[in-house]
């Protein structure tokens, strides 16, 4: 790693600045990079990785095992920062575990130049994200499912979805709409909200409509998702195959190893539980 130097020697702050610059250059979201972040880097050894263009012009990052055969597949739904370097790394993690992982760029219509990862103004970020309406997002998810069904390297009977933050809410909603999905994993996704101009529903309202069991992974320290909301969702899921795990020492974004909120213990435990959840439901 390159370091900044000064006549009196390199200081700790210099290393932090250098690390941040390297992460920005690598394509991590600029909004919330931790000064001391050392994100996991998953190799592409034994994988086929790259961008695909799905019907309708939908871009999607795909990572899959190079080994021949039909593999289970998982749709990876991004945070509000788009399909940046961390989401791509998550796809490679799944691929190394034997999955075809695909991350559609849901914001491409409002952000054709992929500026989201470079933005630090939250208002500007939200303005782009807001352009992706709920029905459009569900349509892009269906496009992705249809594309997976047509690939010779995908086992179409073993499809799952997982998502983070904004994508966590998408995961709940997709699991209630698409019977092709066999399992879901919702990472700290919003549980309830304003119906807005679309009159859309939120996860708490569709808990009884889930067509696939969802594992919710939430942090009790999350300031944006009150524990009361999580408990309400847990109550709504009672008696179903879906459940929520609430980590008492975890904050929002606790799996994102490039962010200050990263919690290695909670993240590693939740990741293992998600893979076990997929396996238990045939994916």
Automatic annotation (TrEMBL):
<dbReference type="Pfam" id="PF01738">
    <property type="entry name" value="DLH"/>
</dbReference>
<dbReference type="InterPro" id="IPR029058">
    <property type="entry name" value="AB_hydrolase_fold"/>
</dbReference>
<dbReference type="GO" id="GO:0016787">
    <property type="term" value="F:hydrolase activity"/>
</dbReference>
<dbReference type="InterPro" id="IPR002925">
    <property type="entry name" value="Dienelactn_hydro"/>
</dbReference>
<protein>
    <recommendedName>
        <fullName>Dienelactone hydrolase domain-containing protein</fullName>
    </recommendedName>
</protein>
<dbReference type="InterPro" id="IPR051049">
    <property type="entry name" value="Dienelactone_hydrolase-like"/>
</dbReference>
<feature type="domain" description="Dienelactone hydrolase">
    <location>
        <begin position="59"/>
        <end position="280"/>
    </location>
</feature>
């Amino acid at each position: 790693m390159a370091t900044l130097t000064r006549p009196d020697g390199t200081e700790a702050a210099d290393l932090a600045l250098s690390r941040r610059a390297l992460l920005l250059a690598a394509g991590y979201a600029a909004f919330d990079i931790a000064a001391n972040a050392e994100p996991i880097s998953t190799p592409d050894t034994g994988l086929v990785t790259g961008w695909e263009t799905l019907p309708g012009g939908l871009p999607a990052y795909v990572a899959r095992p190079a080994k021949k055969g039909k593999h289970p597949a998982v749709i990876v739904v991004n945070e509000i920062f788009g399909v940046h370097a961390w989401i791509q790394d998550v796809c490679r993690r799944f691929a190394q575990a034997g999955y075809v992982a695909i991350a559609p760029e849901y914001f491409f219509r409002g952000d054709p130049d992929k500026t989201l990862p470079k933005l630090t103004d939250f208002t500007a970020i939200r303005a782009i994200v807001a352009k992706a309406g709920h029905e459009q997002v569900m349509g892009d998810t269906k496009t992705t499912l249809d594309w997976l069904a047509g690939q010779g390297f995908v086992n179409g009977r073993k499809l799952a979805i997982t998502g983070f933050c904004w994508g966590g809410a998408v995961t709940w909603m997709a699991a209630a709409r698409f019977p092709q999905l066999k399992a879901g994993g919702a990472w700290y996704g919003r549980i309830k909200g304003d119906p807005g101009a679309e009159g859309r529903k939120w996860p708490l309202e569709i808990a009884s409509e889930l067509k696939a069991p969802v594992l919710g992974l939430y942090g009790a320290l999350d300031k944006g998702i009150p524990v009361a909301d999580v408990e309400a969702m847990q109550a709504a899921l009672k008696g179903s195959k879906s459940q929520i795990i609430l980590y008492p020492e975890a904050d929002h974004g606790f799996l994102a190893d490039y962010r200050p909120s990263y919690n290695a213990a909670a993240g590693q435990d939740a990741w293992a539980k998600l893979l076990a959840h997929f396996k238990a439901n045939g994916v």
